[in-house]
């Protein structure tokens, strides 16, 4: 039996100890679990880092490969652009060649009659220019005759109206007086060459006897030579000449030189007027040359007679004529070409 006087033991401390041990065990388990989970997480993290590093290395390699491929693609693109530009250039050149070939084909495909009419038109245009610009009647007539001969050989080509117009224009040109421009120009050139040798009415040179006397004096010496020179000079102070005109001019050597040069200029002006078909100026220059020749130069000398005859022929020669046109022939050939093009 229990003594009521003795204290009874308290059951709480034993319960508390068990609870503490239980809690401590739980804490240890929790700590162990935490350590395990921490270790596991660290291992997982290391595995993830290793995996990420490998992936990054792979990505770097792929990036390098991509850059290399991009550079190669850029080179290929540049080469492709260069080839495209070359192809475009070749295409443009091919197009130009095709156009040129088409034009050549069109030109070659034209009939012989069309080419003949075109050539005849060109001949007539050239003849018209010869007439209008130079007054070359002979050249224009030769061109018309050549065109008519070419049309005569085209038996299948119906060009009777055109040949009729050509015949009419040729008849009008044949009826014109012929101007010998070349012959007149040659005569003027011969006159210009003759001017320097024309003797003046009052000669500016010593007489032949005095020239011979001076030559003889040069062979002498001393006092006799001086005396002869003095005597010759004294005789030269007075000259007696028989003149046909009362207004003969006494010219110094310099004046005689300029007279001859002015006469040459007059003849050159007449030549220019001849080429320009300026008959008024040509006549004026020839008349002035005739007047100077009759007044200042010896008309009885051989050169004076030849120059006077040449100037007379020049004064009587026709220089300018009224040149007709050949518009009728030009209109006929153009009408024939237009009629063939309509077909």
Care to describe what's here?
The chain folds into 4 domains: 68-96; 112-177 and 325-342; 179-202 and 248-320; 206-239. Helices cover 78% and strands 0% of the residues. The protein has helices spanning 12-109, 112-134, 137-153, 160-174, 181-195, 208-219, 223-236, 253-275, 279-296, 302-316, 327-342. Helix 4 packs antiparallel against helix 11.
The percent range for strand residues is under 5%
Global structural class: mainly alpha
Please count the helical segments. 11
Order of helices and strands: HHHHHHHHHHH
According to DSSP, the number of beta strands is 0
Which oligomeric state applies? Answer: single chain
Tell me about the largest β-sheet. none
Q: What's the number of domains?
A: 4
Terminal Cα span: 160 Å
Spatial extent as radius of gyration: 62 Å
Low-confidence stretches: none
Mean pLDDT over the full residue set = 78
Q: Describe the global form.
A: elongated
Q: Tell me the helix content.
A: over 70%
Organism: Usitatibacter palustris
Protein name: Uroporphyrin-3 C-methyltransferase
Pfam families: HemX (PF04375)
InterPro entries: HemX
